[in-house]
Design goal:
This protein is α+β, with helices and mostly antiparallel strands. The chain is built from 10 helices and 6 strands. The chain has a 6-stranded mixed beta sheet. The protein is globular. The two termini are about 30 Å apart.
Length: about 290
């Protein structure tokens, strides 16, 4: 059992995390799976990896179905919980090639639990359709249709490949962005924002955050400058770049305490999406 745990804990955590968008829930699911299989005769199980993945997938589906109502009642937009490159509680190096970008995790919220399961198994872990069918209890043909439908809901073309690794943003580019923010240079900031830029912030009703997405480059710029003036002007603000979810993110600290994690999604050298995670409960593992 210890050997199985050491071999598959990281894989199962990544699967559960991308299925649920929550590191806390993923950790609980992995522990629960191993507790339930502790007394099984493993020598009789031909494919322990498939068996464990199926158990994890089923637990995630159960959780997602029960969580949908809670997320509908959530205060403001719901964003996935960010995770660091080296996760606590011995889940080491969870950010690997089979981890979808943060922007992709946000898009997964548009899917039903079943669609999300098929999408993650196929696009993040590259399971073949035969194995996916066995894991989710559907036919191969149905799984192919689910992938096509899921991509449509996410605004992706059916044949568009999903790249697990987010395109890296250069430190020079981010430094220019931060300089424009600190200097209050709205003209420079507007050149770095797409005209249809969207900012989404998640405070969970626990800290201040926009209750609806901020749309258009001009409104996003005004919101960011207002945020700097209102919340950060009279406090000691620290900003550093850190590897979060396998990509470079901005980590903001106020008076030495972690306050906000900012993900930037860049398209054609302009910021298309900004995701601000402020809910303290979602920052505890960072």
């Amino acid at each position: 059992m210890e050997a199985l745990y050491q071999t598959y804990k990281g894989l199962l955590f990544r699967l559960a995390y991308q299925m649920t968008g929550s590191a806390v829930d993923a950790e609980d699911i992995v522990q629960d799976v191993f507790l339930k299989v502790h007394d099984l005769a493993w020598e009789e199980i031909e494919e322990p990896k498939a068996y464990l993945c199926k158990m994890t997938t089923n637990r995630c589906l159960d959780l997602l179905k029960s969580a949908r109502k809670k997320r509908e009642l959530y205060t403001g937009p719901w964003l996935p919980e960010p995770i660091s490159e080296v996760y606590t509680d011995s889940y080491e190096s969870v950010v690997q090639k089979d981890l979808l970008s943060y922007a992709m995790l946000v898009l997964l919220e548009r899917l039903t639990p079943g669609e999300r399961a098929v999408f993650v198994l196929r696009e993040a872990f590259a399971f073949d359709y035969h194995d996916i069918a066995g894991l989710v209890g559907k036919s191969e043909a149905n799984c192919r249709k689910i992938i096509s439908r899921a991509k449509g809901k996410m605004g992706l073309s059916p044949d568009e490949p999903i790249v697990a690794e987010e395109k890296e943003i250069s430190h020079e580019w981010i430094s220019r962005f931060l300089a424009a923010m600190e200097q209050g240079n709205i003209d420079t900031l507007l050149t770095m924002l797409a005209k249809d830029a969207v900012l989404i912030s998640d405070g969970g009703g626990k800290v201040s955050a926009a209750l609806r997405p901020i749309v258009s480059g001009e409104r996003v710029a005004q919101f960011l400058f207002g945020l700097m003036r209102k919340f950060f002007a009279n406090q000691e603000l620290g900003i550093e770049l850190a590897a979060v979810n396998g990509q470079t993110a901005l980590v903001l600290q106020i008076d030495g305490i972690l306050d906000t994690v900012v993900f930037l999604e860049i398209e054609q050298d302009a910021i298309r999406h900004l995701y601000l995670v402020r809910n303290p409960e979602k920052l505890q593992y960072l």
